[in-house]
Specification:
Outer membrane lipoprotein wza fold like; wza like fold; 28% helix
Length: 226
């Protein structure tokens, strides 16, 4: 058991020291809809927006329109539009209303060229523990999938999510309930810097054996970013 804890600690500190992000294709998982339903736009998403038949509305940046950190984007003639938190159809409607002030019955299309990414640590009983960048909904299933899935020793009913800055209050999720019952309430949405930890079937005391090292790792990471 102590060897497993030491291995976890070594993995975490190696990742932080290297400052690297592992990028991998998610392992196949059961077909389950994401917890948030339809994708909602967020800062960092890159969009292609077109008004059919009207080149003057074409954005000058050929690489697409970026949703800025404030959640807004700029569109020719229409100006500032709040995109963050909207679905693609909702943003399409908002742009259509703005363009309608200049042309009659415009046909607007919005496509996501590149989804924003979120960095999360996936540790414990997964095939490839590490720091990953995940796209789209950034939920628990995505995180475990991109880390290669759970190991045979994983206690799937005891998955902990540690929010950045809230290391003393981890969220507990039942991954087994998602897989067997499709309980999407357990498919927790993740934020940048979150830690997903799959416990094993042993008797590791999470608060005593793991949390001090995660907190220390965050501290070292903050120092490195200063």
């Amino acid at each position: 058991m102590k060897k497993r804890i030491l291995a976890l600690i070594f993995t975490l500190f190696t990742i932080l020291a290297a400052g690297g992000v592992v990028q991998a294709q998610p392992a196949p998982l059961p077909a389950v809809q994401t917890a948030g339903g339809e994708y909602t736009l967020a800062p960092g998403d890159i969009l292609n927006v077109e008004v059919w038949g009207f080149e003057e509305f074409k954005p000058q940046n050929a690489n697409g329109i970026v949703v800025r950190p404030d959640g807004k984007l700029s569109f020719p003639l229409v100006g500032e539009i709040v995109a963050g938190g909207l679905t693609v159809p909702a943003l399409t409607d908002a742009i259509t209303r703005g363009v309608s002030e200049y042309i009659h019955n415009p046909k607007v299309t919005v496509n996501v060229l590149k989804f924003h990414t979120t960095r999360v640590y996936v540790l414990g009983e997964v095939v490839r523990p590490g720091l990953y960048e995940i796209e789209r909904q950034h939920n628990l299933l995505d995180a475990i999938g991109i880390a290669g899935g759970h190991t045979k020793n994983a206690a799937k009913k005891k998955v902990f999510i540690i929010r950045r800055g809230q290391s003393n209050a981890p969220i507990k999720a039942n991954y087994d309930s998602i897989l067997k019952k499709g309980d999407l309430s357990q498919n927790v949405l993740l934020s940048d810097g979150d830690v997903v930890y799959l416990a094993d079937n042993g008797r590791i005391d999470f608060a005593r054996d793991i949390m001090p090292f995660i907190s220390a790792a965050y501290y070292l990471n903050d120092i490195g970013n200063d």
